Automatic annotation (TrEMBL), chain A:
Top-level division of the source organism's lineage: Bacteria
Species annotation: Streptacidiphilus pinicola
Protein known as: ABC transporter ATP-binding protein
InterPro entries: AAA+_ATPase, ABC_transporter-like_ATP-bd, P-loop_NTPase
PANTHER family: ABC TRANSPORTER, ATP-BINDING PROTEIN (PTHR43335:SF2)
Gene3D superfamilies linked to this entry: P-loop containing nucleotide triphosphate hydrolases
Limits of the ABC transporter domain: 4-234
């Protein structure tokens, strides 16, 4: 059964349309929701929690109608907001116990679940200290813990890696994978970094301007969008030789799709392992040095550039603002 | 002895195994939103007195409780000692005299209940749970009303118990203690409502504290001065209308009117029409602040 289905879901604010006839189906697992800032992600989450009415269309979460069964949905769903939401003067334990009780857990169960879940997200002795002294990574763990403490069937994680350093980011992504793999809880995670979600999610939904751009398994998405960046040296003693043009010609001849990137970098579409061989051969035949050969992590904007060249980014910030009201 | 010689045996009891402490699902009960609302009420009420918080946050509310109760204790002790047979101050009047204590307590603690959640943006976490915004407001409002009621009831209790210990007129003291309790309820409703409404407008605790204290102190100052001037110039009839400007005076006059108590100095008991107007103002303030709070949190 799909955990989330939306049908023609539309949300209009006085000045901006945040969601525009969005029809999408999310299956159990880890699903990424990708969109630039103001693409409508936060608005969608708010509607899914039954906290804001849709202007048009319907949505169901865990088979429950968001318009009429909001309370039942919020009992079964956990939510981790993008922004800070932790009071600094209480300890993680006190805070998560309080939130567990707000979800209807009896006092004893709230304490037990809190101890369990804080251990699972990797908070140990520090959980008795006031949250004010925590690092960003630890705070994100507390935010995740409060979303999981009542053992939901689905968690909505809004930009959980925001503000984290690369190591913290990897830890958080690993934790998100565990939430599904070990805890058996479905995850909807939003991000504006596609590369991040490629590593974490089974399925990725891309929205822009409140419209569905793409909904496909991560494997499909990666295969279709992977690129290799290639950079080579000048040919020694022959500065006038345009090595980039020559390389491009050779690679195109070999049946590859090549486009120039900034500077001396060429982007080659990575359709299979034989692409590496073709590049190696071409570079060797030209007698130049290979400076760079790397797989590119896509920023979401590149997907937009391919899929929706006409989409302009105008008024997106307004939508985001309106969504936070 | 032979048992010990037999060496280590494999555990026979099936419970003697190391449990896998992986993720465990919660199978227990999930209680209603009424339970969550009650929990929020309890934790907010405790928070209003700094209980369950750092030592620092207990100082002010506890100091206010002491300042509120201490004069009553001294008064009772002296009355008993000199065997006066009567308390020098009537129950409701005591609360009027110490209305600044109630004001400071409300100003300091109403923002603790609301501004914190706004400032640290905790509010969305509550509303992502079955709890609705009305439940949240109801719990916070009830907690603040209870806190102010506890603060104002305490000296009433001290005076009443003291009156019994000093074998003072039981009937008179019971009756006037009841008047004091009515006044305490009115203080609780009006002060908590006004305090929370102002606190809900700002995520900055300092602003909230300053605005609430300003409302109570300025209105007391202005009303007191105006009333004094009218009293001195012989406009006693219009002096009592001035009491409408300050919640403390309003309660003082209305309670006096309701129970036929005498008032002191420039304070005046309203006429029947005045009394009804005063009562109406109090109902409007209590209901109005609550309704505005509900509206304030409807759209988050």
């Amino acid at each position: 059964m799909a955990v989330i289905t939306t049908d023609n879901l539309t949300k209009r604010f006085p000045r901006v349309t945040a969601l525009d006839h969005l029809t999408v189906e999310v299956q159990p697992g880890v699903v990424g929701l990708v969109g630039a800032n103001g693409a409508g992600k936060s608005t969608l989450i708010k509607i899914l929690l039954g906290l804001a009415p849709a202007t048009e269309g319907t949505a169901r979460v865990l088979g429950l109608d968001v318009a009429t069964e909001g309370g039942a949905i919020r009992e079964r769903v956990g939510y981790m907001p993008e922004h800070d939401c932790l009071p600094p003067d209480v300890s993680a334990t006190e805070f998560v116990v309080h939130m567990a009780r707000m979800s209807g857990l009896p006092a004893t169960a709230a304490r037990e679940r809190t101890a369990d879940i804080l251990r699972h997200v990797g908070l140990y002795e520090e959980r008795y200290r006031p949250i004010g002294g925590y690092s960003t990574g630890m705070k994100q763990r507390v935010k995740l813990a409060q979303a999981l403490v009542h053992d939901p069937q689905l968690v909505l994680l809004d930009e959980p890696t925001n503000g984290l350093d690369p190591v913290g980011r990897d830890d958080m992504l690993e934790l998100i994978r565990r939430v599904h793999r070990e805890f058996g809880i479905s995850v909807l995670v939003t991000s504006h970094l596609l590369g991040e979600l490629e590593r974490t999610c089974d399925h990725v939904v891309v929205i822009d301007g409140g419209k569905l751009l793409r909904s496909s398994s991560t494997a499909d998405l990666t295969a279709a969008t992977s690129l290799l960046a290639v950079e080579v040296t000048e040919r020694q003693g022959d500065a006038s030789f345009d090595v980039n043009a020559a390389l491009r010609a050779r690679l195109t001849e070999a049946g590859l799709t090549v486009s120039p990137d900034s500077g001396h970098v060429l982007l080659v579409e990575l359709s299979g392992d034989e692409v590496y061989d073709a590049i190696r051969d071409a570079v060797a035949e030209l007698g130049v040095g290979l400076v760079r050969l790397e797989q590119r992590r896509h920023h979401i904007s590149e997907v937009f550039a391919v899929d929706a060249p006409a989409q302009a980014g105008a008024n997106r910030d307004d939508a985001e603002e309106a969504a936070h009201v | 002895m032979s048992e010990h010689m037999s060496g280590v045996r494999a555990p026979e009891n099936p419970q003697d195994v190391i449990h896998d402490i992986g993720y465990r699902h919660y199978e227990g009960p999930r209680l209603s939103t009424a339970y969550a609302t009650r929990s929020l009420y309890t934790s907010s009420l405790r928070g209003a007195f700094g209980l369950g918080r750092s030592g620092k946050s207990k100082i002010l509310p506890m100091a206010m409780v002491v300042i509120m109760a201490l004069p009553a204790l001294i008064m009772v002790a002296v009355s008993i000692y000199i065997k006066s047979g009567k308390l020098p101050v009537d129950y409701p009047n005591y609360l009027t005299d110490l209305q600044f204590v109630t004001a400071v307590f409300t100003a300091a603690q109403a923002p603790v209940l609301l501004s914190r959640d706004l400032r640290f943006m905790t509010v969305p976490l509550y509303f992502s749970r079955p709890l609705r915004s009305t439940d949240y407001v109801r719990a916070k409002y009830a907690a603040m009303v209870s806190a102010v009621f506890i603060l104002t009831l305490l000296p009433m209790l001290i005076m009443w118990i003291g009156s019994m210990l000093g074998s003072m007129d039981f009937g008179y003291n019971l009756k006037h203690f009841a008047f004091g309790v009515v006044a305490a309820v009115l203080y609780a409703l009006l002060y908590a409502g006004l305090g929370l409404l102002i606190a809900s407008a700002t995520p900055r605790r300092g602003f909230g504290v300053a605005a609430i204290i300003a409302l109570f102190m300025v209105s007391e100052g202005v009303a007191g001065a105006l009333r004094g001037v009218l009293h001195v110039t012989g406009h006693q009839a219009s002096a009592f209308w001035i009491s409408m400007l300050n919640p403390g005076f309003l309660i003082d006059s209305t309670v006096a009117w309701m129970f036929g108590l005498p008032l002191r100095g420039p304070a005046a008991v309203p006429t029947t029409v005045g009394g009804i107007v005063f009562l109406a103002e109090m109902v409007l303030l209590a209901v109005g602040t609550y309704a505005l709070l509900i509206r304030r949190y409807r759209k988050i």
